[in-house]
Structures are given as structure tokens and as C-alpha cells.
Predict the 3D structure of the following.
Amino acid sequence: MPNGEHQTALEPHHGAGRYVAVWVALCALTVGTLLASRLSLGPPWHLLVALAIAAAKAGLVALFFMHLWDQPGVNRLVFATSLVFVALLIGLVLLDSATRFPLANPPNERTLRFEPPSFETHVQPGEREQGEPGAIGRPPARE
Amino acid sequence: MVHDAPASAGSAVYNTPNYLNAEIGVRSWLLTRDHKRIAIMYLVLTTSAFALGGIFAMLIRIELLTPGPTIMSALTYNRMFTLHGVIMIFLFMVPAIPGIFGNFFLPLMLGAQDVAFPRLNLLSVYLYLTGAVIAVWGMIHGGADTGWTFYAPYSTTTPTQVVPILLGAFVVGFSSIVTGINFIVTTHTMRGPGLTWNRMPLFVWSIYATSVIQVLATPVLGMVLLLVAIEHAFGFGIFDPARGGDPVLFQHLFWFYSHPAVYIMVLPAMAVISEVVCAFARKNMFGYKAVAYSSLGIAFVGFFTWGHHLFTSGQSTFDAGIFGVLSMFVGIFTAIKVFNWTATLYQGAIKFTAPFAYVCGFLFFLVFGGMTGVALATVSLDVHWQDTYFVVAHFHFIMVGGTIMAFLAAIHYWWPKMFGRMYSEGWALVAACLIILGFNATFIPQFLLGNMGMPRRYYSYPAQFWPLNVASTAGASLLAFGFLLVLTYLLISLRHGKVAGPNPWGSRGFEWNTPSPPSALNFPVPPVFTHGPHDYTTGAETPPEAPGEPEHA
Amino acid sequence: MPELTARAAPPLAHHFVDMRQQTEAARLGMWLFLASEVLLFTGLFTAYSIYRYLYAGVFEEASRKGVELWAGTTNTFVLITSSLTVALAIHFARLGRGKLAAALLGVSLLLGCAFLGIKAIEYANHFHEGQLPGKFYTFAEVQGPGASMFFTLYFIMTGLHGLHVIAGMTVLAVMAVRAWREEFGPEHYAPIEIAGLYWHLVDLIWIFLYPLLYLI
């Protein structure tokens, strides 16, 4: 063999019971995430809990259904690398939005809070005329 | 077996059985799965794209010959620089060196019969061709005027034909991904017996690093081009501030690919240079591991720098600071390579041939372009230079000065291997001088113009910029003559060139252990590797001319 | 198993040394392709992240009022189950029980159809309510900056995922036919395995789309 990363056998072959067990765990986690979302946790927590459960489910699928548990390191490395770059892209772009001068972001709830208090964030009369650019996020014309 | 000893006996008979004459007919080419024939198909296609892009470049330079309108309208000019950029980047720079030399030499250097997925390899050619045809169709039907960067929100509202060009680039991206997957798998699974990672030629290391970028970055470009096309066609508002969209997001996603894409273009160039330097200095690579790992380092760090294109686009100051600092790290890895190449040259038995002339050009342009790049990555300086000709000259130094020099070095170095004939060395040196001088004359004035404040992408300019623009156009003409000269003598050599023999340079690269041109199956017996590439310290008395080198397992 | 010995030697391409090298190459190639697919979706996830960050309130409201929780949850179970049947199909294909593997792939295909059916019902509802992307957005209950953006992302993300479901079903159908013909066995199962990998990736992406679009 050209290099040392091959084992003598491809990988152990497990019984079907393992797949059913993983399936049960996935269903349980799905129910769990559904229930957690109904608990109305606070703003950061509902997101974090949901994403943590999703990551756990994804891990189960990748490790057992997709056999990363048994397979040579290079496949794991490829998948892990792709996740690093996912984190990199989302992380740095989000960091940009979060640290930007607020008015350099498109008009949103936070920047619109600078408007007079009588202005309601969610229901804007201007929203209906979406055909013309700039209708959304612009404070309603005051008579 | 297809051939045996007589073919590789160094008798330099051209018409031995080889990959070019193994099968005859158009059909055998169009449906081939031989990596060498696919490389030749890439050679024809990308060179045609280069010629087309070059024509647009000349038209741009002619338009800029005088301050006012010269030969075209503003809109035509905008289309010209867009098409020049799109063709040169997506149809030439990205696929050229991996597609031609990667395909041809990666399996030869690894001692493999072919790449891991020959059918996918052929598919990548046709994807490339499809993408190119779609893009050219868009050009004929009006072209786009957005620049190759397709910045939203202009690209989503322009009345020109931007959608076919976006889709063309999208399809070419798939071709690039397929090639990348193929090379990575080939490198991992197809190495011949004895070829450990630390014995792999540096060409393979760099191509491997390039492929990693191709696989991981290209899909993001595909997605963002698709989003622009969707928005242009249907008005979904994903980059439209009026509907809550953020145009800067476009730039983030675009440069997440397009900055690493610079390394997709430059790493293969470095791959070539590492081979050519060893071959013509007749020395082992100084600091093999440093050069090898710095390829991976560039590929990795290249992903952390995209934000330096957004310094003036409304990106946060905090992010700009981070990206500015991270961008500097690329300089470290590039410098490792440059120092190692020069250290390899030191006390080498240098043979000054045409490929070596291009290596010298490459080193000069890479260092010059790289240093201006480090300057541009400094936020405060970039605010002054953003969107001026300084940036244009900087990236042409890296792209043309880096990639094209390496491309020319590669084609001269490997021409005898690919076609079995020598080109005319005298003419080659003349052309190399023309190209290197013409290149300097074209772009050094542009550095000056940019520093004086001339903005890019305008078809007219104030009269004070006139003399330098004339100089730049004159340089571009020299460059064009140089390229035509190269094309001419290379084509002539195909028929009339001296028969090269298996190893005219006396090189110790693994690929030279095959006959020239190689046989259809590469190796009658799989070679066994006992030492690293370009090992000029062992067995110095007999340079591995043709036979015997593949030791039988 | 007598049928094992009767099966023809597995096809080995000329440029590989042995079946193991060929299988490993195919597998690594598929994983690289999956990595590129992950990055393809990452572009969309990035867009979702920053727009959700900017329009957190509107996105939550749109998710609460605009999408059907039952549909998303049912589809999650459907896809998870289809992944199980695909994994079992590969398991039995390796044991040489091609007919059973083909039947399990058939179940996966049915589940895939169910997924697309439920998605179609949802899409029909969205069209009816005017919950459409960008300039077509007319849903009165959720208004404000970013309201149409939620549905833009919703349609592009689920649409692209739906295309992957269709592509995956096509591949699974081909594999079902090949398994029925008893082409796979303990030596030669790479095609059905990498087809399975693709289907699991489709499942993986939905596992993230479900909380992002339906739950929060």
C-alpha cells in the first residue's frame, strides 16, 4: 500500500440494531427540540438549545449512519475541515454585522429605535407599498 | 503491454507508441479518459480563452490611449473590462495550470496510471466548455457591465445581460470543484509504492493545496452568483437594502471565494516554480518541508483574509482591523517560499534557459506584487488606494506576473515531455525578454497612475495622466507581440522541432522517467520510489535518462 | 450464502491496484463532494445568520405565524426515517441480500415522496397567504423590515434542499434497481454506500433547517 493510513480490513461491519438505536435517539432528540422550543426560553437560550440539539443529531447521523465512527481519519478530516470553514464564514460575517456602525447596516429594529417613541417597529404603513425601493424601514411620513 | 523497452531506450524516435497516437480520430479525443489527453484539451481551451481575454485587454488599452473617447463608448468600455476580467479569471487563470499541467503531471509524478476518477475528469472539461459557451453567449447578446466582481446592488439592477455570465461562471465553478476533488483523491489514494508524503514532488503539494481551496471555496461563489442571478431575474431582495437586504453581504460571500481564488491562481504557479528552480539549478530544493507545508499554510490562511477587499465598503472597523492583520500572514508563507527558491539557486549550476528566464521574472513580480499587497492590506493606506490603478497594477503583478510567468515557464519546461519536440531556444529567450519588459512597461506606469489618484474602470481621464497611459499601452503591445511569438514558435515546433528524447533537461523530476511523449498507460510497470524528487545528491554520475529508473517491484 | 459465489467478480477500473483502493477513493471523493455541498449551503446559512441577527423579532414572528410547525416536524421524522432505511439498505446490500436492500430503498423513496408532498402543501399555503419572497410579499400579519427577507431565505433554502432531495431520490432509485439485480456484495458496495452518504447529507441539512425555520 502506498502509505500507512490503510488498515487491513475496510472497517468492522455492525449489526442492524445499531442503526435502529440511532434512529430512536434521533426521534427522541427531535421531540426534545420541539418541546424545548415551546418552553419559550430567553433570547439567546432558545437558539442555543435548538442548535445544540441539531448539532447532536447531525453528529449521530454523521458518525453512525455515515460511518465516520469506523472509517479512516481522512474522511473525518475532510468533514471537520468543512465545518471549520463554515464557522469561519458565518463567524466573521456575523462579527462584521455586530460591530458595524449601526446605521451602516440596513434599517432594522435596532437602528429604527432611534425614531420617536410613537413609531411602532413592526407595523409600518409604508410596508404595503413594497414596489418602490426604500419603502421598508422608512419611518411613516408625519402629517 | 502497450510498449516495452525500445520506446524508452532513449533512441529518441518520435513515433513510438504514445498517448497522442495510441488512438486516432476526433471521437477518441472527445471521449477520452486519458488524463494526458484531457490536459491537452484544457491546453487548447484555456489558451483560446486567454487569447480572447487578451483581445479585450488590448481593446481596453487602445481606448485608454487618449484622454477622451478613443474607439468606443463608455458602456462598451464597461463591457470590455467586465469580459476581460471574467474570461481571464474564470476561464483562464483558475483552470489553466491545474487543468493542463496538474492533469498531465500529477499522475505521472505519483506513479499512477490515471487520476482517481477519469470519467469525472472528462466531465470537468465539458462543464468548463458548457460554462464558457453560456458566458460567451451572454457576451454576444450584450455582455455585462458590472466588472468581474458583480457587486450588488448594481449587478442586480443592470439592464445588461448579466445572468448568462453569472450562470457561465457558476458552471465553470463546478468544473473547478470536480478537478479539485479528483486531485485530492488521487494524491491520497494513488501514490505509488514508496512515495510517502514527504517524498512527493513540491508540484503535487501545491496542486493539492490548490485543490483544497477549490473544493471548499468555490461552492460559496456558486451560491452567491446564483443569488445574484435570482435577484436580477425575480427581485427577491436578498441584497437590496430597500427590502432589508445587505449589499455588503454580497461582498463577504463573493470575496470568501475570490480572495482564496487568488491562491487558486498563484499556488499552481508556485508549484511550477518549485519544479523548474530545482531542474535548472541542479540542486535539491532548499527546505523541502518548509516549501511543502507553506503551500498548505497559504491555502489555510488565504481563507482568513477576504475582508481586506471591504475596507471601504461599510464593513465594521473592528473586522477591518482583524482582516488587515490576518492578511499579513500570507506574506509570511509566501516569503518562506521565495527565500527557499533563492536559497536553492545559491551555488546551483544554473542553466539559463527560457523556463528559467520566466522563473526570474516570476520571482521579481511576485516579490514586487506581494510587497504592494502587504501595503494594500494596511487599512489606512488602502483607503487612499482603493479602486485606483494602484490596485489594478498590484493584482496584475500577482496574476500576470505570477501566474502567467509560471504558466509560460511550465509550458516551456514540459513542452518536450508533452509533445516530444523541442522549441527554438533562441526565439524563446527573445520572447521571454519581450514579455517581461512589456509587462513592466505596462504595469509600472499603472502603479504611478494609481498613486496619483487615477480611478479604475473609467474610459476617459484628465490630460495629466496621458503620458503614463501611453507608456502603459505601448508596454501592452510589446506584451502582445511576445505572446504571439511564443504561440508561433511553439506551433512550429510541433512539426519541425528537434526530437526531444525522454529527458532533454537532465531533470530529476519523477515525470521525466517516462518516454516523451509518455505512453498511453504511463508506466508499463508501476514505479517504486526510493527517494524524493529532484534528488541531485544520489547517483550523481548517471542522470536518470529514460530507462531503468522505475525499479520493478 | 450460495448466491454470493455465483456473483461475478466486482468491477475494478484499470487504474486501481485493488478493490480496497477503489472503494477508498470513491468514498473520499464523495466526502469531498459533501464538504463542497456543505459550503454551498453555508452561503445561505450565512445570509440567514446576519439577517436573523438584524431582524430577530420579525424573524421569530414570521416563523411563528408564517410556517406550519406540524409540517416541518412531520418532515423531520420522515427524513430521519428515510435515512434509517437507507442505512439498513446498505447494511443488507453488504450482506448480499439485494432484494431486501432494494425494498428498503423503495421505502426511502416513498418517504422522499412524502417529504416533497408535504413541502408542496406548505408551498401552496404560502402562495395562498402571500408569504412570498421579496417584491411578491403581501402577508399582512407580519410586517416590518426583514419580514419579506425571512420568506426569501425560506424559499431559497428549502427550495435548494428540495432540489437535493430530488437528486438524492434519483440516485437512490438507480441504486435500488442495481441492488435488485444483486450487483452488490461484501466486496463491492461502494456505489450504494456513497449514494447513501448523499442522502444522509440531505438529512443533515434538514436537521439544521428545521430549527432555524420552524422553531425559533
In short: Chain B is about 65% helix and 0% strand. The CA atoms of residues 240 and 246 of chain B lie 6 Å apart. Chain B has one domain: 37-513. Chain B touches chain C at residues 112-118, 120, 177, 180-182, 184-186, 188-190, 215-220, 222-224, 227, 230-231, 234-238, 240, 243-246, 249, 252-253, 526 (CB under 8 Å).
